[in-house]
Every structure is written in structure tokens, then in C-alpha cells.
Amino acid sequence: MTIGAKSIQIGANHSTAAYWATRTILQGINNSSDKTLRCGEMRDYPTMKVRGLIQDVGRKTFTLDYLKQLAKVLSWYKLNDFQVHLNDNYIQLEQYKNVNGEDRRLIDPYSAFRLESDIKKRRK
After folding, report:
1. Which of 15, 62, 118, 120 has the most CB atoms in a 10 Å sphere around its CB?
2. Residue 81 phi/psi, 5° resolution?
3. Which residues contact 85 (CB under 8 A, 6 or more apart)?
4. Where does the chain show beta strands of DSSP type E?
């Protein structure tokens, strides 16, 4: 990236890298007391290929709007991997004991998908 008096030139091998460069520019302007960037040349690249976060919605619900906002925050910090853990059936396994000699721990625990929905539960 070359920052001149009136222009900024970004060189990148991929469009994603060019996008991350725009985040660097915005972060630099945001952190500058006079909201300007110093002229010069710089290189900005990650030291890790995968930088990310896992959000567990299998045990606690989150709104879709929250997840969208979180994705924007992750983008601001140049994180490139966002995993959403949707469900889990290993909740309180210690409560599920053998019944008549059968190991029922892997089939009996409650499991669910907890995504935000406007659909009401249907009664049978």
C-alpha cells in the first residue's frame, strides 16, 4: 500500500486482500487524532492463515441480527473464519444413566436447533 498526499494505491494478489487493506486504511484514520494518514509505503499481512471465532448457539439463543452485527465486527478486525455451532446433544450427559444395561447417553439427551424463527410451535 502506498499512501501519497492525495491518493492511496493498494496492491493485492486477491480481492480479499484488497478488502482487508481498506480495513487497515479505515482503522488508521479512526485511530489518528487528526483523522489523517501519514504518507509512505506499508505492507500489512496476517501471520496466521485462519483467524476466527466460534459462536455457540446450540446452548443459548442469539438473534440473527446479533450474528450479522458480530460478522461485521469480525470483519473490522480482519477475522476470516466465523463458525456458528448450531446444535448439541451432549447437554448434561451425567444425568443420563444406563437403563436395563443399555448405554442411552448418546440417544436420550435433548438436542435442538436454536435459530431465530417467527414460526410458532404447532400443536398436534
Report:
1. 62
2. -140, 120
3. 54, 55, 56, 57, 58
4. 2-3, 8-9, 40-41, 52-56, 81-85
What angle, rounded to 10 degrees, do the helices at 64-76 and 15-31 form? 80
| Residue type for position 89 | N
φ, ψ dihedrals at 71, nearest 5°: -60, -40
Query: Which pLDDT value is given to residue 87?
Result: 72
Instruction: Report yes or no: 105 and 96 within 8 Å, Cβ to Cβ.
Output: yes
Task: Look up residue 19 and give its DSSP letter.
Answer: H
Which one-letter amino acid corresponds to residue 90? Y
Cα 41 to chain center, whole Å?
30
pLDDT at site 75: 92
- What's the Rg (C-alpha) of the chain? 23
3-state DSSP assignment of residue 122: coil
